[in-house]
Amino acid sequence: MSGPARGGNLLALLLSRATMMGSAVVIQVILARWLGPESFGLYGFIMSLVSIFGFAAHLNMQILIARDVARDESTAPRFMTDGMITSALLSVGAGVMVVGYAIWTDGRQVVVASSAVAAVSLALLAMSNVPNAVFQGLGRNHLVIPSTFASKAVGVAATLGFLIAGMGLLSVFVAQVIAGVVFVGGLILAWRRSGGALPRWSGIRASVALARASVPFGVNSLFAAIYLQADVLVLAALRGEDEVGMYRAAAVLIIQLPVLSSMLSTAVFPRIAKVSSDPVRVGDELAFMMRVMLLVGLPVAVGGMIVAEPLLVALVGEAYRAAAPALLIMLPVVLLSNFKVGISSTLTAVDRQGWRTAGAATAAFFNLGANFLVIPRWGFIGAAWTTLLTEFVQISLLLVGMRGATRRMGFDPAVLWVVVAAGVMGAVVWGTDGLGVWLRIGLGAVVYGGVGYLVGAWSRRDLARLRSI
What is the number of domains present in the chain? Predict the structure, then answer.
């Protein structure tokens, strides 16, 4: 297989992840406006079920595959076949759990039927993770782009078309299945066209071995899902679907924006895995990744907090204005999630998965317990606070796990200039309160980019390094 030109790997990831994030935001906005808070909350409840039990469909084996392929490219064809078949087999059990929980906790026909269709979408997502991981390990992320564009366009068009036709909530999950089929089929086609082989399945023993080796990663995925979805399930149980809808609306951007940090960590992951025994090189890669994530995340957090209410109303409508305080509280999570993603990815690359799992487990139990304490009294506002506090708790533990894996990283003066540029941008956005929210955001972005370049928050050398990834 021939790889992309220099810099194509990160550019491919940028295009792919930006498409995924953009289409997800578009679909969430369409659903929030079309369905209203209560039905949007029901949609959020079903998606949380899928996320909670999703670990059983894939066991996060894509992390193991990406790491091992980065270290030995000859394993890629075998992982393609065995990984997808193993994911398909695991998805049967995951689907049973999703539907079973829906029957046990709710029982309404629309919820059970929607959960069943969502479980099929989960299976397709789990299967697509395998070629994605292989491409990541090989540094061939450009192969994902056509399938991503096609599947997301189909997903948005199908969702909107079904809703216009009055087909209801179930059709939203049917649209996800259609998009998933396009995505998986496109990834397999891209692999074959690039010269990749698809050997015969190695058999059930090989799938069992792969699943067993993935269990530590799957446990981490389970704890992460509990942390990320517990608030929705507790809200649904204690406060009702209307509050779930409000909370999901506030989290539309919070959920999607870390996709960009995931893009960078995905690109850097194979580089760190290859030098995992060299603390100096690991530290250098991690320090650069953290600075780029600060550069991207800080202006989002600062500017977003200033325009939280008009931004939320502009996105999802006047019916969700009451959710603006929750968005304001959770916006710093964007920056914290950036750091968490980078540190977690590095821990896995240097074979310290146990610390990553410990961090996810601590976050899950802390968040679950805190939600039971605060949601009965403060509802979705309390859930927003627990999310923010949990991020601090998890990052603290992950940093402990990084000790000894990297050289001591000194203070980078460019970090100070990132803060300065974000401060100037914030002042401009704050001072233009009379303008429309999109104009204020655009003006803030221009000011941040210009000031950042002038004071040295970022440089041409940084761009050259990003292009080399």
Answer: 1
